[in-house]
Fold this sequence. Notes:
Helix 4 (133-144) packs parallel to helix 7 (230-246) and helix 4 packs parallel to helix 13. Strands 15, 16, 17, 18, 19, 20, 21 and 22 form an 8-stranded mixed beta sheet that branches. A 5-stranded parallel beta sheet has the order 9-8-7-13-24, covered by helices on one side. Strands 4-5-3-6 form a 4-stranded antiparallel beta sheet, covered by helices on one side. It contains 13 helices and 24 strands. By secondary structure, it is an alpha+beta fold.
Amino acid sequence: MRAVQLKTLPACYYRDMWAHAHIVMEGGGYQMLRVPDLALPLDYTEEMLRKAAARAIRCKPNDITAILLARRAVDARRQVQFIITADATVKNETELLKKLPKNTKIKQVQPYQLPHYEKKTSSKRPVIIGAGPAGLFAAWILAKAGLQPIVLERGKQVSERQKAVSEYYLTGKLDPECNVQFGEGGAGTFSDGKLNTGTKSVHIRQVLQIFTDCGAPEEILWQAKPHIGTDRLAECIPALRRCIEAEGGTVHFQAKCTGITLKNGQIVSVEYVQNGTDFSLETSHVILAVGHSARDVFQWLSEMQLPMEQKAFSLGVRIEHLQRDMNRICYGSAAEHPALGAASYQVAAHLPDGRGIYSFCMCPGGVVQAAASEAETVVTNGMSCFARDAENANSAILVGITPEDFGSDEILAGVELQRKIEHAAYVAGGCTGKAPAILLGDFLKNQQSAVLGNVAPSYPLGTVFARPETCLPETVCQALRAGIPLLDQRLHGFLQKDAVMTAPETRSSSPVRILRNPETLEALTVKGLYPCGEGAGYAGGIMSAAVDGIRCAEKILADCH
């Protein structure tokens, strides 16, 4: 067979730091050999990658007609290097594959193509409550299948949302319906845009592809820890919404869901208010993707006696180090190499009492956010832009808590615990919106801080020196004191006395779970209602929420003709 050029293959799949030929075999499907575990120096070239792949395949470098990055990770265990998985187009690849050892990890692969969804019909349009990652990706699937979904989002679209958040940061004036938690894209829009996840799902590649098709950096297709950045998310989230609208979907902003109506255990309508007017939408399928901060929704669902349960979550602080120190700690003498960028870390430890302490949502070269969604509260979170070039690194340092710590058997006891902590932090900050902060060295000595060191806190509303005990439970503070030295054993240098701890981090995940059938993904007692994503207790980040949205949407498709 003769190899020919094919320019119509999706360019975003092939593009990395080099321009590649796009090859297809006449009369058959395009195939490549996926070659894992190629160790290469930080300043490797295409020629070096080609030679390494050729050695693994046991062919000549000239037999490889094109080579692409499929995955690239940093290995800093001994010497800092890249570990690469490459996709190579090779002459006579089938014959070469036969000659490799039986236990070879090299395998044939084909270019990824987004799944095709057959057109479906339904007498009533499906409704999605919430335009976060779960809701938007669910809407994308349903729109592609021709079901013209209706999305209700209580907040505003990204451009207006950015204005509301900026005003809050400048003046302390909070819009409780449009903030870091509520609005187009959900809480993820104002985050680092991290897409790495522990979730194993066939839909992960689908999410990455849809994001890149909507303008996300194409590096996310091969980064071991893909991230988009807040600045890029602000562009690709509206692009995703426009794709949904182009396929017949409708997105209503400032449309706050106020209830659902059931008949004989089947959902029949959704009620919402928009611009002071009440509306009702008849529907037989609803995806409830409201996010972990929709406390009013949890309240009326509880009053409806929808099956819910308390769920363990985590509490803690945001900790900030100088990014250059983190680069040195993680990469040593290679810290300034331009191929590496800002270093990230992930650490965890188990305490003698059985609790766990761990880093979460680590934002290299980022800032600590003011992420409140209710008046007279202080909430912290983290974000980075795509360049990750801010002075500080920040991460949540969290301690796991269980329903036994909530102090009540009430379903929403975890929500009330969050509220109590967030209001106490507001009081500790002088009732101004400033956040309580302390230097790490002083915290470990159980003493008040008086003067900052080299790290300037980035929390936008300002900080005041106060011990975390002013807002966090004593058990959490004790666990932080016991656990942080253990984290330093895993990441030597993490325990820096002038690192700044800002409290509280309370919104790591939902404190409730809306129970659903594991097979149909419907709420246990309501046919046609699909609790979905972080708010329902089934996800923990952009990627896992998006994947759960896709799963719920596909269940609806299976229920339609």
